[in-house]
Amino acid sequence: MRVLVGGGTGFVGTALTQLLRSRGHEVTHVSRQAGKDRISWDQLSQSGLPQCDAVVNLAGENVLNPFRRWGDAFCKEIIRSRVETTKTLAKAIADAEQPPHAWVVVTGVGYYRPSPTAEYTEDSPGGDFDFFSRLVSSGEAAALIPGSPARGAVVRSGVVLGQGGGAIAQMIWPFRLGLGGPIGSGLQPFPWIHIRDLAGIVCHALETEGLQGVFNGVSPSSPATSNGSFARELAAALGRPALLPMPAWAVRAVFGAERAVMLLEGQRVVPKRTLESGYSFMFPDLPAALKDIVA
Ligand code: NDP
């Protein structure tokens, strides 16, 4: 299968590209910069969809970039980088003479309202209570292509755990130095997924005829994981203590109050439809996932 991947140069895209190529698929990225096996968003808008059998969008400015001040300009960039890229791909698919068979977009579990107790499946309500939930709704709405023969699937991802990027890269050094610990109270749920499973779910959605709709991209044990238990397991995987909590005020000072919610609160999310669809997780449990990543 020929697969076009928007944002395929990034953290998740690199893992997905490796997996797809290992399964014999051809991968082309859509990027802000054209290059080898890569077209630019401008080229896509001007020349239309290249011949392909499936399309994925992973493009998005990193919301938790601590070097970007939280404010209107950054929020606009976050929206543009996800919603506009998804719209551009959806339009290219809608206009294609030979449309692809499958179209998959990765959004986030920020769709569901943070709660210490509620458990959410793909059918639970959400998507309209804060910036992040509306960001997910707008991204998912932008992906809709009425009447298209392309099968549409959305993967709502939790915090992606993998080597060399994402959350682990941001927090590994304090933990390696024995200075890590829970964020805030540590009681908030921590919805997580191993990067190979997120890539695996996207690949499963691309390859499995008939799959469409929303799939939660979190590990089956993630509803039982709190931020505190994650901190303990990460420290244990590194053979270090996890004693120093990061106070809520410090998180708010670095990220801004609105964005700090992503770290200080969380959702218990169940991958119900994902499991029912026949996907088998490689890393359902946190200790093995972390051992694989930090060992
Ligand atoms: P990355 O931060 O690695 O970014 C993915 C790609 O997006 C980049 O390689 C880049 O491609 C493109 N991009 C970045 N900024 C912009 C911008 N301002 N405008 C246009 N394109 C941009 O993301 P991940 O791989 O970590 O995540 C992939 C998707 O999964 C994202 O949409 C993210 O929101 C979602 N997700 C990720 C989670 C995580 O923990 N990582 C959690 C939940 C959801 P290029 O430079 O080639 O243009």
Automatic annotation (TrEMBL):
InterPro entries: DUF1731 (IPR013549), Epimerase_deHydtase (IPR001509), NAD(P)-bd_dom_sf (IPR036291), SDR39U1 (IPR010099). Residues 246-293 form the DUF1731 domain. Gene3D superfamilies: NAD(P)-binding Rossmann-like Domain (3.40.50.720). SUPFAM superfamilies: NAD(P)-binding Rossmann-fold domains (SSF51735). Residues 3-209 form the NAD-dependent epimerase/dehydratase domain. This is Short chain dehydrogenase/reductase family 39U member 1. It comes from Strigops habroptila (Kakapo).
